[in-house]
Design the sequence.
């Protein structure tokens, strides 16, 4: 089989590594890929936003399966175009990807399906949104409706901050068209977790849960990022709670979409807050989490390509998942300036010739290769993932790996999985 992975981040490197390890797969291709992905896949210079280019590429390599990693091409209809041309794809079509592409649509579906989520009001006018602020209490959450690369969510503690956030959307147009519709949302309190599930329209197969760290600094301080580290599984989310969440969130959502004539095939990722009133949805994503899968996939024993194929073909019901009985910890190393900006071209030292470290899995996100050396090429640069029988050992292993790696201005959190180590006792 020939598999084409669309995207260039750590998530796509994780998919590529699983694909390269699959007994079904002869060739792994990636577009556009990155410095580390190029060690396991043939990379092609086609941007993940280039739908006609991706169609040509899939045709020229006779792809048997195209796995689309990021949200933007899903929302833009890459899967629709590829499927119409006869390619099998892993990832939802545009109508289903709208669950991630429009927070307002996601809320409307959740309300219709009875899925618990934060109370909200949405606005398409600046003045109305500003007037609403006088009627609510703080903290509150201001969200740009559309895709904003993880930056369109602002948790604000006071009126002035909320006004600035609304201004950022409507006046500064900081999120472009994505911010022309704005949600003002109840601020939920509790522990967050990510529950991802493969869905073929009928069968729902949950992956083991993961805990992401969204803020840039230790202790959950500083601005939100795409994710600075992760661990899996999550002690506070045992298998019974995962099942409960699937029945409370994923199943009614998939059923509601089905009522509307929308089939969901791909991965439905629920970002949840575990509140005193039970789990509530913060957001839906319609793709694998990054860095969630850098922690989840190293534990997954099942063949990911077989599962992605079954998802595309609607035969997930014949499959189950098996997991290594180990704990997984993944630490993100980011470049100088992240998340506001990123620094490119800094030489990365400490990795072996394949961009790996012995006994660990290193997933490349923002890397490129120049003159035989890996260099930084984006905000999140690497994810260093470790497996071990306990969280303590996995965490120590991951950080021992991180300490071997150097590049100018590198930043990483020191507290990834600390709470899991504590929970383990
Ligand atoms: P999202 O992209 O919607 O997951 O939002 C990014 C982050 O903002 C989440 O991971 C939460 O930490 C925070 N967040 C989003 N919505 C809420 C909410 N209603 N209450 C509290 N925090 C939230
Ligand atoms: N880790 C958050 C995300 O993938 O959106």
Sequence:
């Amino acid at each position: 089989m020939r598999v084409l992975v669309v995207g260039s981040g750590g998530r796509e490197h994780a998919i590529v590594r699983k694909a390269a390890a699959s007994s079904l797969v002869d060739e792994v291709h990636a577009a556009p890929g990155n410095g580390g992905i190029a060690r396991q896949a043939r990379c092609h210079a086609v941007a993940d936003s280039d739908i006609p280019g991706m169609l040509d590429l899939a045709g020229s390599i006779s792809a048997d399966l195209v796995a689309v990693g990021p949200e933007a091409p899903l929302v833009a209809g890459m899967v629709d175009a590829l499927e119409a041309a006869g390619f099998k794809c892993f990832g939802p079509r545009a109508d289903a990807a709208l669950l991630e592409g429009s927070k307002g649509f996601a809320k409307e579906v959740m309300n219709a399906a009875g899925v618990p989520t934060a109370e909200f009001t949405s606005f398409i006018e600046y003045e109305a949104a500003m007037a609403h602020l006088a009627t609510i209490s703080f903290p509150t959450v201001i969200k740009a409706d559309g895709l904003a690369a993880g930056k369109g969510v602002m948790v604000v503690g006071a009126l002035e901050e909320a006004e600035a956030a609304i201004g950022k959307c409507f006046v500064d147009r900081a999120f472009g068209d994505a911010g022309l519709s704005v949600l003002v949302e109840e601020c939920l309190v509790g522990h967050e977790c990510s529950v991802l599930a493969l869905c073929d329209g009928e069968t729902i197969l949950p992956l083991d849960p993961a805990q992401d760290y969204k803020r840039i600094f230790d202790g959950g301080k500083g601005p939100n990022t795409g994710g600075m580290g992760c661990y899996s599984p999550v002690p506070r989310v045992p298998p019974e709670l995962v099942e409960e969440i699937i029945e409370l969130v994923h199943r009614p959502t998939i059923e509601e979409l089905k009522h509307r004539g929308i089939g969901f095939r791909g991965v439905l990722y629920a970002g949840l807050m575990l509140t005193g009133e039970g789990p509530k949805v913060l957001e839906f994503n319609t793709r694998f989490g990054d860095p969630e899968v850098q922690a989840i996939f190293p534990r997954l024993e099942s063949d990911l390509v077989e599962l992605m194929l079954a998802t595309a073909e609607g035969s997930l019901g014949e499959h189950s998942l098996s997991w290594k009985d180990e704990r997984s910890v993944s630490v993100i190393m980011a470049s100088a300036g992240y998340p506001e900006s990123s620094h490119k071209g800094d030489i990365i030292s400490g990795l072996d010739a394949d961009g790996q470290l012995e006994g660990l899995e290193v997933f490349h996100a923002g890397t490129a290769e120049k003159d035989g050396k890996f260099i930084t090429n984006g905000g999140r640069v690497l994810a260093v993932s470790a497996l071990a029988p306990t969280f303590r050992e996995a965490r120590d292993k991951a950080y021992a790996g991180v300490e071997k790696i150097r590049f100018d201005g590198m930043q990483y959190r020191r507290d990834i999985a600390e709470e899991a180590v504590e929970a383990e006792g």
